């Protein structure tokens, strides 16, 4: 029973299901989720974090960061994972179709780049995040400690934003320039 279900799943993934192309859906999911992540991460890096740094009130910074972090994490982690997995699916499907099928290496690279944001966050930022979401610790350590931690966090977050923009751009290029796309002839002036 389970093997029949897996076979049906593979059949749907390799082609189309009810007239819907699985590869096209995966491309849209990967690119859309990467765009959402990149937009949110860029906004945090260029607007929200600098505004927080300019706020001198430690009593505001500590609880605000805590709330901001938890709201953003609920949205960004699933977007990064979903985009990465969808891009890897596109790469797999294109590789199965052969050398003339799209740009599987670019999909693979872009998928690994955005999917890699989650382990980067866990390995490089989680300990810092844990310190910053502890509002009591932040208030006890004082304003200069908080400013230094926020500066470190901002640099690491900018790396996440940059990686996501690069991954999103790669996916847009792969969608636009895939070799199996219909070519529109140039219009010549009369």
Key words describing this protein structure:
190 residues; mainly alpha; two-stranded antiparallel ribbon; 2 strands; 2% strand; disordered N terminus
Q: How would you explain this protein's 3D organization?
A:
The chain is mainly alpha-helical. It has one domain. The chain contains seven helices and two strands. Strands 1-2 form a two-stranded antiparallel sheet. Helix 2 (22-54) runs antiparallel to helix 7 (143-177). The longest helix has 40 residues, at 58-97.
Strand order of the largest sheet: 1-2
Intertermini distance: 64 Å
The profile of the biggest β sheet is: 2 strands, antiparallel
Shape verdict: elongated
Overall number of strands: 2
Q: SSE order in H/E notation? A: HEEHHHHHH
Rg, nearest Å: 21 Å
The share of residues in helices is over 70%
Uncertain segments of ≥5 residues (pLDDT<50)?
Answer: 1-13
Percent strand: under 5%
Query: How many domains, as an integer?
Result: 1
Count every helix, treating DSSP H or I runs of 4 or more residues as helices: 7
| Oligomeric state of the chains present here | single chain
Mean pLDDT: 88
Structural class: mainly alpha
